[in-house]
Amino acid sequence: MTGGRRPGRGSEGGSLTGDRRVHVRTCPLCEAMCGLEVHFTGDEVKLIRPNRSDVWSKGYICPKGTTLGHLHHDPDRLRAPLVRNSAGELVPASWDEAWARSEELMAAVRDRHGIEAVTAYIGNPAAHNYSISRYVGLFMGLAGLPMIYSAGTIDQWPKNLTCWLMYGHQWRIPAPDIERTDFMVVQGANPHASQGSLLAHADVMGALDRVRGRGEVVVIDPRRTGTAARADQWLPIRPGTDALLQLAVVNVLFAEGLVRLGHLAGRLKGVDEVRRAAADFPPERVAAACGADPEAIRSLARRFAAADRAVWYARIGTCNQEFGTLASWLPDVICALTGNLDRPGGLMWAKPVAWSIALRPRDEPVQIGRWTSRVRGAPEVMGQVPLSCLAEEIDTPGSGQIKALVVICGNPVISAPDSGRLDAALPLLDCMISLDNALNETSRHADVVLPGLSALEQPHYDELLWSWATRSAAKWSPPLFEPPDGRPEEWEILLRLGALCAGIGQDGLDVAGIDNGYFSALAQMGGADPAAALAASPEPGPERINDLAVRTGPWGDRYGENPGGLTLEQIKQAPDGIDMGPMVPRIDEIVAHPDGMVDLAPGYITADLDRLARLIDRPAEPLVLTSRRHLRSNNSWMHNVGVLVSGRERCTLLIHPDDAAAAGVADGDLAVVSSVNGRIEAPVEVSDEMMPGVVSLPHGWGHDKPGTRQSVAREHPGVNNNLLAPPDFVDAPSGNAAVNGIPVEVTPA
Ligand SMILES: Nc1nc2c(c(=O)[nH]1)N[C@H]1C(S)=C(S)[C@@H](COP(=O)(O)OP(=O)(O)OC[C@H]3O[C@@H](n4cnc5c(=O)[nH]c(N)nc54)[C@H](O)[C@@H]3O)O[C@H]1N2
Ligand SMILES: Nc1nc2c(c(=O)[nH]1)N[C@H]1C(S)=C(S)[C@@H](COP(=O)(O)OP(=O)(O)OC[C@H]3O[C@@H](n4cnc5c(=O)[nH]c(N)nc54)[C@H](O)[C@@H]3O)O[C@H]1N2
Ligand code: SF4
Ligand SMILES: [Mo]
User: Fold this and answer.
1) What is d(CA 416, CA 735) in angstroms, rounded to the nearest whole number?
2) What is the CATH superfamily name and number for domain 157-354+586-610?
């Protein structure tokens, strides 16, 4: 056992009461990256409390963070591989058996259909897991798959696209400098539940309270969320019309002479194009479509422009919708036009202590439309087509039909639009392998399920999330518990899976050799001498990549070139973390376009404005469905934690009293919600926190399927709102799913 220590700074190991000890670590569950104190005896977690000494989170924590012990001890958690036997049942197997069966099935697909018949889906925990975050790239590099799917196209693809077009890099995503701003707009985000997204900050709600103390917080959301309820102003908005409202704000900035390019004046191109584009969208023309008051939009623009330091933050409600690209582009434009881009208190780029592989320097032009999907003809955007294409690629016969699927920490049977078709398609595969700790709605279809370690059995240091963190902090957590003998870490599983897809046999696979090659390439990327880096850290695995990213990061020792510089070892010596200060202006390092300019009006984006303009006169749908999150839930996978799902039913249909009356449903009734794609039943929760014409269901539910092993979740199944999401309802430029704004009908069940 490693990593135990007494409470209090820097003390190591020792006993607290009896053999009770305290282990300090960072919660891996969301972007808040909270510091935890895990109280344990022997191999049992007793209690988890906030670590008040954590330099980053300073004692903040949410209910999910206290449940890492529940996740670890959950009897349903997979601890050994499962392999489907001849009777069609998934039964425990040894790792050798699991690899042998995987190889047999994959080889058969490759031999008969070629690599074109093999694909992968990469889910959300890939961004949070110590191994997977650092090895998903190696998996893809080795596997050589012609195409992959990911949770990206049901999440932040529009933001990746606009950042690539505006700044030259898909992952150089600016974040709101929330602790120094005086005026913050929060559009389509609910940090009260989510704790922040593409915004890493512990206790976002506390920070918003402080913004209110200095100035003002405005929330634009069809629902009066927990965030909106605590803001100065809630502006309800009809789903999917966000870009209209944002353009109207830009219109007012130009029309009323409020544009101040400030320090970035010489760095921005396309300002005139933006002015011309917005000229057609005054508040008076768009307000009705948005369900807003034109004066409210005008006033918002004026107050935003008048604030000393203002920031416009938009998240998933503005991505997972019909005009996601436009609505992800305009917040950055508004900040740039008011001098609030790359400036304290505005939208800024983080400076992580350890660089992320995703953020590596790249200067390729944006990749769009190099190929199209086989069945629907969906154009590729940044190497992917919509996740909703996966089902049809599996169930539509013909050359190129998908026959083998590797699922890496994802649950698309719940999370993908038109999830019913995917659920029905997965059994058609000749080979399906899931890397997952749970036997859930997706992995139950697999031929082989490979479990990863529990969070407490592995180290932790977030790979990607510091790339939009509000401070340059760094924290490393040791494993608390030793993994049982023979359990591989996920980096090795991913390496082996990559080889498997490529047709490289598992027998005698040179894991260390392949890993050395990967590490050398990353060392080169970081500007280090690969030989020297290899000599300094010969042990394969994610830790030396973590060390490399620190040592070749902005404060690193560069393997001795910068004596006194940081190494991972030094961060390990500070269990409460280190802090290198707030965000700093860094536009010179960020913009990757050859001319060094920020492109405020990329043609690919502005070409979508005609489609947006047609929205103004489109008759409003009587009722549309949106999604929401809850603090005690995490996408589809923490519903097996009893203390989180106990109490009031959470998977309810939120509906405004007027709409409820019109539909003939009352609070507590069961209602049928139907769309062109399907129908589900959900309990009704009547509330004026919804704006009229909009209903809301949480995503991530629907745990009543046979063949899973989720005994607690099964007792609280809820319904899957993605059964209602039409597969072709997407943001056209990015292909991102529009799971918000789905026309629905509500009737009594
Ligand atoms: N209608 C609607 N649909 C949505 C959304 C919405 O707002 N509305 N949101 C979308 C968004 S933003 C996202 S990110 C996606 C999420 O979509 P997915 O990534 O497909 O779903 P998750 O529920 O995050 O599934 C995570 C899976 O990883 C497993 N897992 C968790 N931790 C680990 C680990 O450490 N190792 C391994 N090997 N496995 C692990 C869990 O058991 C679970 O099966 O859903 C999307 N779908
Ligand atoms: N507790 C918890 N935390 C999480 C997650 C979780 O499942 N549970 N998931 C994590 C993941 S994967 C992600 S991506 C982040 C997401 O983090 P956030 O972006 O903060 O996501 P939500 O909390 O779903 O808030 C989205 C808001 O958008 C609103 N909305 C819906 N449609 C529209 C629209 O058309 N326009 C506007 N303006 N608003 C709209 C919804 O009403 C909702 O309030 O959260 C992460 N954190
Ligand atoms: S907010 Fe909750 S889930 Fe997120 S890191 Fe903190 S404790 Fe973990
Ligand atoms: Mo997400």
Assistant:
1) 13
2) Dimethylsulfoxide Reductase, domain 2 (3.40.228.10)
